[in-house]
Amino acid sequence: MEGTLTSPKRAMPTDARQIRSRKALNSALLALLEERSFDQLTIREITARAGTGYATFFRHYPDKEALLSDIATDEIGNLLAMTVPVLYESNSYESTLALCRYVADHARLWSALLTGGAAAIVREEFIRQARALVEEARTTPEWLPSDLGVVHGTGSTFDILAWWLGQENDLDAKDVATILHRLVIAPLIGDKVEKRAPAP
């Protein structure tokens, strides 16, 4: 799949009708992503599902990638802003658990973003935003290039969350946080797993 989410965030409309239209378009895209891959979707299908006119779409977005960009950029930003700053300052397990709980609380959205047809684009944006957040911090072991640490940590986190949401299992947020912390986070930042993560 081609494309990126690097386009600038669109200004939020202030008119109530425009706000409703944008929310309807966002919801429609998320619902359709649960049914088919992003590449298979058309703007006409999105507007039909949203109950808006075809021309209305273009008052908000130039293409479907821009719509996805708004949704994914906001959600990834929320997730990373909540977890990355506290990852190195306090209990890294608690930060990992907060991330998993956030994803669980917004499972429908994250399932569409992480396991749907747009997963490759979303993964790229996830890594891009994480790089920007930790650009100045030296958080990886000396032997590991910082950028590689970000790519590995973020990519592995993405893959574990996608695995969790993409199948039926009995794992809850706490179970996945323990797996994620022990497998990715603790080794990457040199945390003591035994002190941070309770036994499953």
From TrEMBL:
Residues 19-79 form the HTH tetR-type domain. It holds the Pfam family TetR_N. One of its GO terms (molecular function) is DNA binding. Residues 42-61 bind DNA. Gene3D superfamilies: Tetracycline Repressor, domain 2 (1.10.357.10). PROSITE patterns: HTH_TETR_2. It comes from the Bacteria. This is Transcriptional regulator. Keywords: DNA-binding. The keyword Cell inner membrane does not apply.
